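can u do me a favor
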């Protein structure tokens, strides 16, 4: 983003709504799809991922679920 850029209130609301709706798939895609293992990939680490994929966290993703954050090689 350009220096000094700030999201609009509508953009923040849209991001929160996306995160809320994507969360079940992020932590249990394997269960939703009925497969033993699944990996969810995002273009950048989602903020909520740290709560479910960090060792020692109080909350955990479902068994067989993995997460990866990808970035473009420059």
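np, heres the sequence
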């Amino acid at each position: 983003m350009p220096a000094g850029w700030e999201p609009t209130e509508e953009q923040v609301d849209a991001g929160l709504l996306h995160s809320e709706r994507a969360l079940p798939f992020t932590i249990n895609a394997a269960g939703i799809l009925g497969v033993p293992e699944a990996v969810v990939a995002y273009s950048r680490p989602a903020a909520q991922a740290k709560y479910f994929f960090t060792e020692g966290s109080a909350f955990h993703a479902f068994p067989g679920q993995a997460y990866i954050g990808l970035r473009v090689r420059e």
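The beta strands are 38-42, 65-69. hope that helps!!
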